[in-house]
């Protein structure tokens, strides 16, 4: 597989970030995972568009706006396999359930969910549903912008922080270089600005602030990033972007 082929890299990014029934890639393809991060916001754009369309269809069918928002979010979770939600729960369980870095990493790898994880999921999902319900009528494009821009934050964290463990999904993907990261951030910013006009600048600032906050906590708690930390970053930044959009749209 040609590592420089943009379409192949987009395919790989889609395989990594969704659970769509795509043709299987050979194991050798995953060696270019770090080069494919530029496409993360494009995958997010597709995920957000799917959710926004589902929400609009639900409204057209006469469903209450809160039900339409729940369905929009459920569709996005279905497309991604709720992998980022799983990361969010693991991070909260590990970061606040353990007293040492080793113990926190051990908890994060445990398939069982604890109190911190449950509360984090309930809180973030409720915030996203509330924000989406407010935006479906006024600005469904904000849902697309949030999904794309929040996924652009993941490669930024991959670039900025060391790996906290010697195995796992993030470790296997690797650390992206500056070029694909720059393309990733540019695409995320352009999608946000296209969907939200000048308001996109505010959402970019909010997303970067959330990313910086997660990075600081991750360094203190486990000394770096993991796939779970990346998923939590996506979830928290998406929620923050959506909530911000409700204040000016």
Concise summary:
The protein is mostly helical and about 250 residues long.
Biggest sheet overview: none
SS-based structural class? mainly alpha
Helicity level? over 70%
Number of strands: 0
The string of secondary-structure elements, in order, is HHHHHHHHHHH
Envelope shape: globular
| N- and C-termini, Cα separation | 44 Å
What are the segments in which pLDDT stays under 50 over at least 5 consecutive residues? none
* Average pLDDT: 94
Query: Number of helical segments?
Result: 11
Strand content: under 5%
How many separate domains?
1
Rounded radius of gyration (Å): 17 Å
Provide an overview of this structure.
There is one protein chain. The protein has 249 residues and is mainly alpha-helical. The chain has one domain. The protein has eleven helices and no strands. Helix 2 packs antiparallel against helix 7, helix 2 packs parallel to helix 9 and helix 10 packs antiparallel against helix 11. The longest helix is centred in the middle third of the chain and has 24 residues. It is globular, with a radius of gyration of 17 Å.
Features:
single chain, 249 residues, mainly alpha, 75% helix, globular
Topology:
Elements: H1 6-17, H2 40-60, H3 65-80, H4 83-97, H5 101-109, H6 115-138, H7 141-160, H8 169-173, H9 178-196, H10 199-222, H11 227-248
Helix pairs in contact: 2-3, 2-7, 2-9, 3-6, 4-5, 4-6, 4-11, 6-11, 7-9, 7-10, 7-11, 9-10, 10-11
């Amino acid at each position: 597989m040609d590592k420089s082929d943009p379409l192949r890299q987009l395919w790989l990014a889609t395989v990594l970030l969704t659970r769509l029934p795509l043709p299987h890639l050979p194991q050798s393809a995953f060696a270019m995972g770090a080069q494919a991060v530029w496409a993360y916001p494009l995958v997010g754009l597709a995920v957000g568009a799917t959710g926004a369309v589902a929400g609009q269809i639900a409204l057209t069918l006469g469903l209450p706006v809160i039900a339409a928002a729940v369905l929009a979010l459920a569709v996005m979770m279905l497309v991604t396999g709720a992998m980022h939600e799983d990361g969010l729960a693991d991070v909260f369980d590990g970061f606040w359930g353990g007293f040492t870095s080793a113990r926190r990493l051990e908890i994060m790898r445990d398939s069982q969910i604890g109190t911190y994880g449950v509360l984090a999921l309930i809180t973030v999902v409720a915030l996203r549903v509330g924000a989406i319900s407010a935006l479906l009528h006024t600005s469904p494009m904000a849902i697309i912008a949030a999904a794309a821009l929040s996924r652009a934050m993941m490669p930024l964290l991959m670039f900025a922080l060391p790996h906290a463990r010697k195995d796992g999904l993030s470790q296997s993907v690797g650390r992206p270089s500056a070029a694909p990261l720059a393309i990733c951030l540019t695409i995320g910013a352009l999608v946000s600005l296209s969907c939200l006009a000048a308001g996109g600048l505010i959402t970019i600032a909010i997303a970067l602030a959330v990313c910086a906050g997660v990075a600081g906590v991750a360094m203190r708690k486990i000394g770096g990033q993991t796939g779970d930390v990346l998923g939590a970053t996506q979830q928290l930044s998406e929620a923050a972007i959506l909530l911000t959009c409700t204040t000016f749209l």
